Amino acid sequence: MDKNAKIYIAGHRGLVGTALMRNLRAKGYSDFLTRTHAELDLTSQAAVEEFFAAEKPDFVFLAAAKVGGIHANNTYPAEFIRDNLAIQTNIIHAAYKNNVKRLLFLGSSCIYPKLAPQPMKEEHLLTSELEPTNRPYALAKIAGIEMCWAYNRQYGTQYLAVMPTNLYGPGDNYHPENSHVIPALIRRFHEAKLANAPSVTVWGTGTPKREFLYSEDMADACVYLMNLPDEKFVPLLGQGRNDGLPPLVNIGVGEDLTIRELAEAVKAVVGYPGEIVFDTGKPDGTPRKLMDVGRLNAMGWRASTPMQDGLAIAYTDFLNTLARK
């Protein structure tokens, strides 16, 4: 990407989008296209096509999505499949119609089967059943990957999908019900500390294992991939094949920990002195989700932020969020 390129970041105010903006600015990019939901409804095909026709971005980071944890996915399944299908379909097609040079579509590790071999490789996509609690969201994201691949094959576009593992970091959503596990735990332990509560309850048994990636590392990987030279980038796109390996690259750290270990780590960062109680009547979700990041590592990129450091920054961000309210 030339430093003068016009870059559209869909979802620029979310966890992923804000991290992308910071990373790109730090690398010398300055010509950004951004629109809030009030300014541009990405579920409206007409609005998206009008925006692309008027602005003509050179590169697109498709980070806009309706996202949430187990509770949100169970409560709003219709919105999770409808809104995500609409957003990605509108943007991918408008990018093609307006000759976008490269597009990066951001998905989620929940696209992989519930009982996928560990660690999960890109070729494990669509090999067995999905986790039921987030199937509508996962199916929408799988459709986005397939759409990128189909456009690459039929139209010669350069659209790459990346699958970050579970993310956390500055700009996260700390909603008490609709947030992901790390921001939810940060809020819960912080509030328990203020209330001098004797214990904090965590959903599930604490035994499932999860991998977590600091959002700034994720953004760096995305920009790294978008800047690969043609001889490395084009072979990833599957333009001339339909062999089961989609234009897909995992982004992660390559190691995981149990939810119990995660809860203990967040408890330590927040400084909460009480006990952790696990509500075994609540769902655990997928037993394990570890990404195989060999494909990305072979291209020369590795995550660099230790989890304890990332959690400390995330907690500071949470405190700053509270102070602004």
Brief sketch in words of this structure:
By secondary structure, the protein is α/β, with parallel strands linked by helices. Helix content is 42%, strand content 14%.
Tell me what you see in this structure.
This protein is an alpha/beta fold and 325 residues long. It is 42% helix and 14% strand. The protein is built from eleven helices and 13 strands. It has a six-stranded parallel sheet, sandwiched between helices.
**What is the spatial order of strands in the main beta sheet?**
2-1-3-4-5-10
- Assign the structural class, choosing from mainly alpha, mainly beta, alpha/beta, alpha+beta, or little secondary structure: alpha/beta
- Rounded mean pLDDT score: 94
How many individual helices?
11
What oligomeric arrangement do these chains adopt? single chain
Name the overall outline: globular
Number of strands: 13
Whole-number radius of gyration? 19 Å
- Percentage of helical residues? 40-55%
Q: State the major sheet.
A: 6 strands, parallel
Give the N-to-C terminal Cα separation: 38 Å
Q: Identify low-pLDDT runs.
A: none
Strand content: 5-15%
Order of helices and strands: EHEHEHHEHEEHEEEHHEEHEEHH
